[in-house]
Amino acid sequence: MNFNGTTGNQDIPSFDFNNLHIENAAGVTLTGNVSVNGTTAALNFINGIITTGANTITLASAVTVVGASATRYVNGFQAWVIPTGSSVRSFVKCRC
Protein backbone atom coordinates (compact mmCIF):
# COMPACT_ATOMS: atom_id res chain seq x y z
CA MET A 1 0.00 0.00 0.00
CA ASN A 2 1.35 3.40 -0.93
CA PHE A 3 0.32 6.43 1.13
CA ASN A 4 1.14 9.51 -0.88
CA GLY A 5 -0.31 12.94 -0.95
CA THR A 6 0.51 16.56 -1.45
CA THR A 7 -1.84 18.27 0.99
CA GLY A 8 -2.15 17.39 4.64
CA ASN A 9 -1.52 14.42 6.86
CA GLN A 10 -3.13 11.08 5.99
CA ASP A 11 -4.64 8.59 8.47
CA ILE A 12 -3.72 4.90 8.32
CA PRO A 13 -6.42 2.64 9.82
CA SER A 14 -5.77 -0.55 11.75
CA PHE A 15 -4.69 -3.05 9.09
CA ASP A 16 -2.17 -5.79 8.14
CA PHE A 17 -0.07 -4.60 5.19
CA ASN A 18 2.28 -6.72 3.07
CA ASN A 19 4.22 -3.60 2.08
CA LEU A 20 3.88 -0.03 3.32
CA HIS A 21 5.32 2.91 1.39
CA ILE A 22 5.20 6.39 2.93
CA GLU A 23 5.37 9.19 0.37
CA ASN A 24 3.61 12.15 2.00
CA ALA A 25 5.70 15.14 3.09
CA ALA A 26 2.99 16.02 5.65
CA GLY A 27 3.31 12.53 7.15
CA VAL A 28 0.81 9.85 8.14
CA THR A 29 -0.88 9.08 11.47
CA LEU A 30 -1.98 5.66 12.72
CA THR A 31 -5.62 5.52 13.82
CA GLY A 32 -5.22 1.90 14.97
CA ASN A 33 -2.52 -0.73 15.37
CA VAL A 34 -0.79 -1.58 12.09
CA SER A 35 1.23 -4.66 11.09
CA VAL A 36 3.71 -4.77 8.20
CA ASN A 37 4.39 -8.27 6.88
CA GLY A 38 6.50 -8.57 3.71
CA THR A 39 10.25 -8.80 3.34
CA THR A 40 12.76 -6.64 1.48
CA ALA A 41 11.84 -2.94 1.63
CA ALA A 42 8.44 -3.80 3.11
CA LEU A 43 8.53 -0.50 5.02
CA ASN A 44 9.74 2.13 2.58
CA PHE A 45 10.12 5.77 3.57
CA ILE A 46 10.09 7.93 0.45
CA ASN A 47 8.93 11.12 2.16
CA GLY A 48 7.39 11.96 5.55
CA ILE A 49 7.08 10.36 8.98
CA ILE A 50 4.73 7.88 10.64
CA THR A 51 3.19 9.17 13.86
CA THR A 52 1.75 6.35 15.97
CA GLY A 53 0.04 8.23 18.81
CA ALA A 54 -1.15 5.57 21.28
CA ASN A 55 -1.01 2.89 18.54
CA THR A 56 1.85 0.59 17.52
CA ILE A 57 3.36 -0.31 14.15
CA THR A 58 4.60 -3.92 14.29
CA LEU A 59 7.09 -5.21 11.74
CA ALA A 60 7.27 -8.94 10.93
CA SER A 61 10.65 -10.60 11.42
CA ALA A 62 11.58 -10.61 7.71
CA VAL A 63 10.72 -6.94 7.11
CA THR A 64 13.51 -4.60 6.07
CA VAL A 65 13.18 -0.83 6.30
CA VAL A 66 14.57 1.45 3.61
CA GLY A 67 14.74 5.21 3.25
CA ALA A 68 14.67 6.08 6.96
CA SER A 69 16.51 9.31 7.80
CA ALA A 70 16.33 12.43 9.95
CA THR A 71 13.17 13.46 8.05
CA ARG A 72 11.69 9.97 7.43
CA TYR A 73 11.06 7.83 10.54
CA VAL A 74 8.55 6.39 13.02
CA ASN A 75 7.56 8.82 15.77
CA GLY A 76 6.06 6.70 18.53
CA PHE A 77 5.61 3.00 19.23
CA GLN A 78 7.30 0.45 16.98
CA ALA A 79 7.66 -3.30 17.59
CA TRP A 80 9.70 -5.81 15.61
CA VAL A 81 8.94 -9.52 15.82
CA ILE A 82 12.10 -11.55 16.42
CA PRO A 83 11.57 -15.31 16.29
CA THR A 84 13.16 -17.61 18.89
CA GLY A 85 16.56 -18.86 17.78
CA SER A 86 17.19 -15.89 15.49
CA SER A 87 20.66 -14.61 14.85
CA VAL A 88 21.78 -11.50 16.72
CA ARG A 89 19.97 -8.28 15.77
CA SER A 90 21.32 -4.78 16.33
CA PHE A 91 19.15 -1.74 16.92
CA VAL A 92 20.30 1.86 16.69
CA LYS A 93 18.47 4.60 18.53
CA CYS A 94 18.29 7.62 16.29
CA ARG A 95 17.86 11.02 17.88
CA CYS A 96 17.48 12.65 14.52
Task: Report on this structure.
The chain is mainly beta and 96 residues long. The chain has one domain. It is built from no helices and 10 strands. The strands form 2 sheets. Strands 2, 3, 5, 6, 8 and 10 form a 6-stranded parallel β-sheet that branches.
Query: What does the radius of gyration come to?
Result: 13 Å
Number of helical segments? 0
Number of strands: 10
Largest sheet: 6 strands, parallel
One letter per element, helices H and strands E, the order comes to: EEEEEEEEEE
What structural class do helix, strand and pairing data support?
A: mainly beta
Mean pLDDT: 84
Helix content: under 10%
How many domain regions? 1
Distance between the termini: 26 Å
Strand content of the residues, in percent? over 45%
Layout of helices and strands, plus pairs?
Layout: E1 2-5, E2 10-12, E3 15-17, E4 20-24, E5 28-30, E6 34-36, E7 43-47, E8 50-59, E9 65-66, E10 74-80
Parallel strand pairs: 1-4, 2-5, 3-6, 4-7, 5-8, 6-8, 7-9, 8-10
